[in-house]
Design a protein that fits this description.
Number of strands of chain B: 12
Order of helices and strands of chain A: EEHEEEHHHH
Radius of gyration of chain A: 15 Å
Oligomer: heterodimer
CATH topology of the largest domain in chain A: Ubiquitin-like (UB roll)
CATH class of the largest domain in chain A: Alpha Beta
Order of helices and strands of chain B: EHEEEEHHHHHHEEHHEEEEEHHH
Mean pLDDT of chain A: 97
CATH class of the largest domain in chain B: Alpha Beta
CATH architecture of the largest domain in chain B: 2-Layer Sandwich
Number of domains of chain A: 2
Number of strands of chain A: 5
Strand content of chain B: 15-25%
Structural class of chain A: alpha+beta
Strand order of the largest sheet of chain B: 4-5-8-6-7
Shape of chain A: globular
Helix content of chain A: 25-40%
Shape of chain B: globular
């Protein structure tokens, strides 16, 4: 066993992990159920989290590698009582159906908007290239991200 | 068996000492994209080399030096890479996989994994990039093209790739890839470079093709055919025809040999045209 310190959604954490444990399994063990297991090969994007603010696949990241780093999951962005503007935009535009891809989608969208506050629809589509959705056909997801971007520019953000 | 220990290598020496001590039961870990998907059952110890201080990009005259654990996305966004050959290498990175994977995968990992369908080896072979590696006794270097002719998998069982050096070129390069969608692996890819002499004729040409479905190779017959000729649409068409007759292609689950032969010709024609426009500033 290995003990590591890291920051999870802004809170300090000190946990014991197995040397070969994947970040996906650690986060779910810690109750971060927004982090989904899809393909476990890095293809589907359902397990995406932010590592030091950048999207990565938690299914292919060894948990030991996050020692001393910052991890953000969807739980760190918003909650049912206090949803993040991106979550609100997804709900309002009907961008959520089964919801399995939604956490990963929102985290890559969050990364996109932090780098590019006024993306074109094409840039949104490019940003979500690595996140598969089998329900929506992506149209509503792109609309949701563009709506959130508009609100972000109007100052509705955190 | 499973992973019993995880090591954070503080430098190259520590990584190599640990690797030797494991006697085949240890694995060097960088981005982990390939390793986590295909971990050999005998591996007991993981040696993280991203903590060994090997990441970084620096301009080197007109060339570029990239540390082995630099991520693909860091290269794509780096000012130094954008200043090298009009951003050619940075643009190639944008063709590889998707952003979250590019935030993890490293240049060293791409060179060592050397997937036959991968885009980076094709660009590196065309560019004449040089790989630098260390084992417990010495530091060695060779062009990536030469490395792939050696038993490189055996070499990297006891060595660590530390850096990739990109030479200066007086000319321009272009990369082309055909894939089923933006994030997918190539059905065929190519990288072509051209330089012109004082009379506007082709002084040098570099033509590499990959995912044929074999690993990237240069087509020196096509390069020789182009050299000393004047750039023109007709010349690209003739070079494409030459490519069609010279390229070694095969079938796999993704595409047929016959399709690859036609596609190879088409993308080489496009890449040569774009490279020529890059040289003359018409791009």
């Amino acid at each position: 066993m290995l003990k590591i310190y890291f920051e999870l959604n802004g809170e300090p954490m000190y946990v014991e992990i197995k040397p070969g444990e994947m970040l996906l399994d650690l986060l779910r063990r810690l109750g971060m159920k927004s982090v989904k297991e899809g393909c476990r090969t890095g293809e589907c994007g359902a397990c995406t989290v932010l590592l030091d603010g950048k999207p990565v696949r938690s299914c292919l990241t060894f948990a030991a590698k996050i020692k001393g780093h910052r991890v953000t999951t969807l739980e760190g962005l918003g909650s049912p009582a206090n949803p993040h503007p991106l979550q609100e935009a997804f709900l309002e535009t009907g961008a959520v159906q089964c919801g399995f891809c939604t956490p990963g989608m929102i985290l890559v969208a969050y990364d996109l908007l932090s780098r590019n506050p006024d993306p074109t629809p094409e840039e949104v589509r490019e940003a979500i290239t690595g996140n598969l959705c089998r329900c929506t056909g992506y149209v509503k997801i792109v609309e949701a991200v563009l709506l959130a971007a508009k609100r972000r520019r109007e100052g509705v953000w955190r | 068996m499973g992973i019993k220990r995880f090591h954070y290598a503080r430098d190259v020496e520590e990584a190599l000492s640990l690797l030797a001590a494991y006697e085949g039961r240890g694995a060097l870990l960088a981005g982990g994209v390939d390793l986590a998907r295909g971990l050999a059952p005998e591996v007991e110890g993981l040696i993280d080399v991203t903590t060994a201080g090997l990441a970084g990009i620096s301009a080197d005259g007109g060339g570029l030096r990239v540390g082995a654990t630099t991520t693909l996305e860091a290269i794509r966004r780096s000012q130094e890479a954008q200043g090298y050959l009009g951003g050619f290498l940075a643009k190639v990175m944008g063709h590889v996989a998707t952003l979250p994977l590019r935030n993890m995968a490293t240049l060293g990992g791409a060179v060592v994994s050397a997937h036959p369908w991968a885009d980076i080896p094709t660009a590196l072979v065309a560019l004449g990039a040089e790989a630098v590696w260390q084992n417990e006794e010495l530091t060695e270097k060779a062009s990536v093209e030469e490395l792939y002719r050696r038993p490189f998998r055996a070499i990297f069982r006891r060595a660590l790739l530390t850096e990739v050096r990109f030479p200066a070129w007086d000319g321009a390069f272009a990369f082309e890839k055909v894939a089923r969608n933006a994030g997918d692996i190539a059905l065929i890819n190519c990288a072509c470079g051209l330089g012109l002499d004082g009379e506007g004729k082709i002084a040098w040409a570099r033509v590499a093709i990959g995912a044929t479905p074999h690993r990237a190779k240069r087509l020196t017959a096509v390069e020789d055919f182009l050299t000393d000729e004047a750039p023109s649409e007709e010349l690209w068409a003739e070079a494409a025809h030459k490519m069609k007759t010279e390229v070694e292609v095969g079938d796999d689950m993704r595409a047929s040999a016959e399709w690859r032969r036609s596609a190879a010709a088409a993308i080489v024609r496009r890449a040569l045209d774009r490279a020529a426009k890059g040289v003359t500033g018409d791009a």
